[in-house]
Amino acid sequence: MTKATTDEEALEAVRKRIDAIDQELLALISERARCAQRVAHIKTEASGHSVQFYRPEREASILRRIKESNPGPLDGEEVARLFREIMSACLALERPLSAAFLGPEGTFTQAAAIKHFGHAVVTKAMGAIDEIFREVESGACDFGVVPVENSTEGVVSHTLDLFMASPLMITGEVCLRIHHHLLSHAESLSAIRTVYSHQQSLAQCREWLDRNLPTAELIAVGSNAEAARLAAQEPEAAAVAGAQAAEIYGLSELAERIEDEPSNTTRFLVIGKQDSPPSGQDKTSLLLSCKNEAGGLHSLLAPMAVHGISMTRIESRPSRRGIWDYVFFVDILGHRSDPNVAHALRNLDKDALLFKVLGSYPIAVL
Ligand SMILES: O=C(O)C(=O)C[C@]1(C(=O)O)C=C[C@@H](O)C=C1
């Protein structure tokens, strides 16, 4: 027998095994989907109209378990992503979810929504961040996804400001690695006269743009996807945007990964009418203000230290209400129902001029 024949036979044997495994997987996935249908039935019987099909804490603990018990050779993130999609499809059988995002189609916010909920979520493009809040408040969408901070450019202050007046709660967080590309119909960099992008993305690629397109006019627009749409109409224009926008608007990548900071990451928040029950590894976001006096903030935050709570972020914003100069957005580790967190929050509530729990939610798994 020649070597080619034995190789072919070996290949055929492994493929047969793969086919058999796929059939087993299919049978197991179908059985899992039927279990999700039973869960939906039990939930409906138990709670009637106010039933919560989507359970962020359950999803987070399933994904964590999968990552921890993953035997390889597939990477933990990769395996979790597969299970993310299986759960997304199972949930859609119970009831399809809708999520409003900062449009148009192809933005990083849409990518964040899909990363968090999986591809079975029905995404709805909105023109501005405040419209996302309104869409969820009115009940037209179940959830919204809004950008809150970028590792290079800092906080998205407009999002924080909207939390001051909104009754919505934070039910999840998503962290997305952001890779920016220079997208255009032009053949070369020398043809580019104008670059469109969102102001944050222009800032995240400032050094690259200064070095490679020093004479191009940089124009800030509402979103990266809008920039790609405009660049698709002008032969001498380019957009700084993600790969999804290139696909949607039919542009080529003239230069890839042009962000100045290779670990450039944006954190998004998922907003809804309720926050999440405890998942075992949670965060709580707070809105606080204190008396404008020496040591005011220090004594306001003292209960955190007393109860051994880690603060992962603090951001200040002008209050816009006159009586408080500043409000503080604070993230802490733990769920608001954990005994030490609950204790600290009771003390904070007594001492703060303004105290609002924006929500407790699972720490991002993916
Ligand atoms: O456990 C539940 O409550 C389910 O609805 C099942 C399931 C799943 O597929 O595992 C689906 C949707 C929920 O968001 C969480 C988990």
TrEMBL record:
Domain Chorismate mutase: 5-98
Positions of the record's site feature: Essential for prephenate dehydratase activity: T266
GO CC annotations on file: cytoplasm
Prephenate dehydratase domain location: 98-273
Signal peptide segment: none
Classification via Gene3D superfamilies: 3.30.70.260, Chorismate mutase (1.20.59.10), Periplasmic binding protein-like II (3.40.190.10)
Record's keyword terms, sorted: Amino-acid biosynthesis, Aromatic amino acid biosynthesis, Cytoplasm, Isomerase, Lyase, Multifunctional enzyme, Phenylalanine biosynthesis
Compartment(s) of residence: Cytoplasm
SUPFAM superfamilies documented for this protein: ACT-like, Chorismate mutase II, Periplasmic binding protein-like II
GO biological process, alphabetically ordered: chorismate metabolic process; L-phenylalanine biosynthetic process
Pathway: Metabolic intermediate biosynthesis; prephenate biosynthesis; prephenate from chorismate: step 1/1; Amino-acid biosynthesis; L-phenylalanine biosynthesis; phenylpyruvate from prephenate: step 1/1
Enzyme Commission numbers on file: 4.2.1.51, 5.4.99.5
Main subcellular location of this protein, as a coarse class: cytoplasm
Molecular function via GO: chorismate mutase activity; prephenate dehydratase activity
Catalyzed reactions: chorismate = prephenate; prephenate + H(+) = 3-phenylpyruvate + CO2 + H2O
InterPro entries, sorted: ACT-like_dom_sf, ACT_dom, Chor_mutase/pphenate_deHydtase, Chorismate_II_sf, CM_dom_sf, CM_II_prokaryot, G/b/e-P-prot_chorismate_mutase, Preph_deHydtase
ACT domain segment(s): 285-362
NCBIfam families xrefs: CM_P2, PRK11898.1
PANTHER family in the cross-refs: PREPHENATE DEHYDRATASE P PROTEIN, PREPHENATE DEHYDRATASE-RELATED
Function of the protein: Catalyzes the Claisen rearrangement of chorismate to prephenate and the decarboxylation/dehydration of prephenate to phenylpyruvate.
Protein name according to UniProt: Bifunctional chorismate mutase/prephenate dehydratase
Lineage, broadest ranks: Bacteria, Pseudomonadati, Pseudomonadota, Gammaproteobacteria, Chromatiales
